[in-house]
């Protein structure tokens, strides 16, 4: 088929086809850009919404912790921890308390009675509190406790004796405080302590 159109018209047709193709590509590009913008917009909205949700959850968690009195719980945990430390200290000394107290009672002179016994934290000493009918009986408690024949303490230091006429128990007006250290061969320990540095 012979195209008899003038050259100028042929050129116009070519440019028209090219323009149409360019328009199509421009439309596709514009639609793509709109799609990308929509995706980015939804992404930003989703991120912001997630941030708000996490912030709300964090606030709710903080409020719940406050409602549960977290500070009070921590204080109780601290008290329990202190009690456990004390228990470990007592167990680490491996003391048979029932037999120990019986032995102390057996060497306590008439007119005196044990009221309190406290184990030292590190030094291995024991603080004992007695009540006594008079000053002489109080000093006799100290003498009896440090007697090697009793196999309880290496030494017993008399820290104080306070006698009062206005004591709540008139029969035992004297308060006696003694600090004593266990003997190394104490039969009232689970394991007899050994002296460090000795060689067999």
Walk me through the structure.
Helices cover 53% and strands 18% of the residues. It has 200 residues and is an alpha+beta fold. Among the domains are: 8-50; 94-182, General secretion pathway protein M, EpsM (Gyrase A, domain 2), CATH 3.30.1360. A 4-stranded antiparallel beta sheet has the order 1-2-4-3, with helices on one face. Strand 1 and strand 2 (125-132) form a beta hairpin. The longest helix is centred in the N-terminal third of the chain and has 61 residues, at 7-67. The protein starts with 6 loop residues before the first helix and ends in an 18-residue tail after the last strand. The model is unreliable at 190-200 (pLDDT under 50).
- Determine the number of helices (DSSP H or I, runs of at least 4 residues): 4
Structural class: alpha+beta
Kindly report the average pLDDT value: 77
CATH topology of the domain at 94-182: Gyrase A, domain 2
CATH architecture of the domain at 94-182: 2-Layer Sandwich
Poorly predicted ranges (pLDDT <50, ≥5 residues)?
190-200
Helical fraction equals 40-55%
CATH superfamily of the domain at 94-182: General secretion pathway protein M, EpsM
β-sheet strand percentage: 15-25%
Through-space gap between termini: 125 Å
Order of strands in the sheet with most strands: 1-2-4-3
Order of helices and strands: HHHEEHEE
């Amino acid at each position: 088929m012979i195209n008899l159109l003038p050259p100028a018209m042929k050129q116009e047709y070519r440019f028209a086809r090219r323009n149409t193709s360019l328009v199509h590509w421009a439309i596709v590009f514009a639609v793509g850009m709109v799609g990308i913008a929509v995706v980015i917009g939804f992404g930003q909205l989703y991120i912001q919404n997630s941030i708000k949700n996490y912030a709300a959850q964090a606030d709710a968690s903080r409020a719940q912790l406050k409602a549960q009195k977290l500070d009070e719980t921590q204080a109780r945990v601290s008290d329990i921890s202190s009690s456990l430390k004390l228990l470990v200290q007592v167990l680490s000394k491996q003391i048979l308390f029932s037999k120990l107290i019986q032995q102390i009672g057996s060497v306590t002179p008439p007119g005196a009675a044990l009221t309190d016994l406290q184990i030292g934290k590190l030094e291995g000493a024991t603080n004992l509190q007695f009540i006594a009918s008079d000053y002489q009986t109080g000093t006799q408690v100290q003498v009896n406790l440090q007697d090697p024949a009793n196999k309880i303490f290496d030494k017993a230091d008399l820290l104080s004796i306070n006698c009062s006429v206005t004591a709540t128990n008139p029969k035992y007006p004297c308060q006696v405080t003694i600090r004593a250290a266990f003997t190394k061969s104490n039969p009232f320990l689970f394991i007899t302590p050994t002296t460090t540095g000795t060689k067999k």
